[in-house]
Amino acid sequence: MSTPRTPDPGMLVISVLSADWDAFWPEVQAVLTERFGPFQASEPFPFVETDYYDEELGAPITRRLLAFDELRPLDELADVKLWTNGLERRFARDGRRLFNLDPGFLTQQSLVLATGKNFSHRVYLKDGIWADLTLMWQRKHWVDFPWTFPDYAGEAMKTRLTKLRLSYKTMLSKPQT
Predict the structure, then answer these.
(1) Would you call 70 exposed, middle or buried from its count of C-beta atoms within 10 A (0-12, 13-18, 19+)?
(2) Pair 77, 112: CB distance under 8 Å
(3) What are the pLDDT digits (tens) for 48-105?
(4) I need a surface site. Which of 45, 54, 70, 139 has the fewest CB within 10 A?
(5) Which superkingdom is the protein from (predicted)?
(6) 4: which residues sit within 8 A by CB, 6+ positions away?
(7) What is the pTM of this model?
(8) Among 104, 108, 107, 101, which Cα is nearest to 148's?
């Protein structure tokens, strides 16, 4: 019999996609900080693997990857996704989002993203939100799956996530306040 135990907290990461950063970024930074605490944001980098969001968000789309300083319980993932969905709606104009937010948790073992879309490999959490095992850490590198989105399977993202994973390991070794 296995004995249940609380896992280590995860590093909250949020991918932000947009083609019009000037329209929202300073205000959304403040709102995200108020809700989840301080974070480090990457410089924008190209999002070119698909044109899926172009009609709604415009083009060219760039991404920022946010990594939050406070580690959080993994069972908050659905609540975080529901909150970020609300933030997207709050800033929408004429029924169109200005940005797309994809939250997830990075751990030593994996990157799990939250989604409102079911699929065969996803695990239901609650309130219409599923967990998507996007990447797995194995033998000192990220391993993707047949369902991993191409932008997450790319080396640019994996390189950033490897750096965040190192930061996460350092954070785990420090006493949590």
Answers:
(1) middle
(2) yes
(3) 998 999 999 999 999 999 999 999 999 999 999 999 999 999 999 998 999 999 999 9
(4) 139
(5) Bacteria
(6) none
(7) 0.95
(8) 104
DSSP 18-43: ES-GGGTHHHHHHHHHHHH--EEEPP
Q: Comparing C-alpha atoms, which of 41, 30, 150 is closest to residue 91?
A: 30
Closest CA to 109 of 139, 76, 80: 139
Angle between helices 25-36 and 77-91 in degrees, nearest 10:
150
**Amino acid found at 170:** T
| Per-residue H/E/C for 47-99 | CCCCCCCHHHHCCCCEEEEEEECCCECHHHHHHHHHHHHHHHHHHCECCECCE
